[in-house]
Write a structure and sequence with these properties.
372 residues, alpha/beta, Rossmann fold, 37% helix, 16% strand, globular
């Protein structure tokens, strides 16, 4: 039995171009698919060159469980922190007390699109909702005893398709160095002052203003495309592209034992509630994160304004932004990495660890029973 090399390179991958992924393969095993073909290098170096999802190390910090409760934002003076276990999953919880009443929202809930929001579920993306980065570095194959070479080849098929669409329809090549944490971080109405052009002292400021306006135009276009095609990405791409993606997605479903199907069941369960909302916080840059949601068929569950990129500010700051947005709600964090677990503990939020199919199944049961 061949021992697979250990790969821990899950951090700080840098992305520049979709088709450039092909150059990562040189001598050794061949990986062919459609019009694309690759030759794989040393497996320990088989990680993506795009900054798709920089994961923290997978070591989990465990702490003692007690009885399950719900959470309140850490800013609430009434909150009494303690550790909690929900259906065997360890969480860090805050118990809200007002007189003899527990587990209530402190103030008026948030109203969003006529939906009264009382619970906010913050999801990690890669290796929680979808399987992607762990295909590229071989972690999924090692963990679940799958074919290592197939995992690598499948990962690069998907990566090529993701960044082909990101470059061709979502201006990622132009925006790779202009990442935004949130789509509404752009001032779409700001225009450069034409009077500055005649003033030499203000030329740099004028050029900067032009660049900002160009970036704003790109992001406005991205927002419109995402919202237009989030329910039917087939209309956005060519017939050949869609056929290739369908083949890759079907292979992924089989290879990962329908991982995304299990995750989607959980998200659907939350979305079906009148008082709950799902939000994504990912270390992927905003543009490829949006493209992933489209291609993995979860864009219908996540409007673009509910996707946050932690690439520049980290997950804790993203969590704080979300808590500022929804204010006096209950918050729950779902993920597989150390970054989101650490941030949830710092902010005193319940955390549900996802490391296997069984974790997703148990989460779905807990959601259906309304115990998480």
């Amino acid at each position: 039995m061949t021992t697979l090399p250990s790969t821990n390179n899950h951090d700080n991958d840098t992305y520049t171009s979709s088709i450039a992924a092909n150059s990562m393969f040189s001598a050794s095993s061949n990986c062919s698919w459609g019009k694309f073909s690759w030759k794989k290098t040393d497996q320990s170096k088989a990680t993506s060159q795009y900054n798709v999802d920089s994961k923290e190390p997978n070591e989990k910090q465990k702490y003692s469980p007690t009885q399950p409760t719900s959470s309140t934002p850490p800013s609430s003076p009434e909150a009494d922190s303690k550790n909690t276990s929900i259906n065997g999953t360890i969480v860090n919880d805050a118990k809200c007390q007002i007189g003899n009443t527990t587990n209530r929202i402190l103030h008026s809930p948030t109203v969003t699109n006529k939906k009264v929001i009382e619970k906010v579920y913050i999801w990690d993306l890669d290796e929680t909702i979808i399987v992607f980065q762990s295909l590229l570095n071989g972690d999924y194959a090692r963990k679940f005893s799958k074919d290592y070479n197939q995992a690598i080849c499948l990962g690069y098929k998907i990566e090529t398709l993701i960044f082909d669409l990101a470059d061709s329809k979502f201006h990622f090549r132009e925006l790779a160095k202009s990442n935004k944490t949130h789509i509404d971080d752009i001032d779409y109405g700001k225009k450069p002052d034409s009077d500055q052009k005649s003033k030499v002292d203000h030329w740099d400021k004028f050029c900067s203003s032009l660049q900002q306006d160009k970036v704003a135009t790109y992001f406005k276009d991205i927002k419109e495309i995402y919202e237009k095609y989030r329910d039917n990405v087939k209309e956005l791409v060519s017939v050949n592209y869609h056929s290739n993606w369908e083949l890759a997605l079907n292979e992924l479903q089989s290879f990962t034992d329908k991982w995304i199907h299990l995750a989607r069941n959980c998200i659907d369960s939350i979305n079906s509630r009148f008082n709950s909302v799902n939000v994504i916080v990912t270390t992927t840059q905003l543009v490829p994160a949006a493209v992933k949601c489209l291609l993995y068929s979860i864009a219908d569950l996540f409007p673009l304004e509910n996707i946050y990129s932690a690439t520049d500010i980290g997950k804790e700051q993203c969590f704080r932004r979300i808590m500022e947005r929804y204010r006096n709600c209950q918050y729950f964090v779902i993920g597989d990495g150390k970054a989101e677990e650490s941030a949830s503990r710092t902010l005193n939020l319940p955390f549900w660890n996802i490391s296997s199919h069984d974790d997703l199944f148990k989460l779905n049961v807990a959601l259906n029973k309304n115990t998480f």
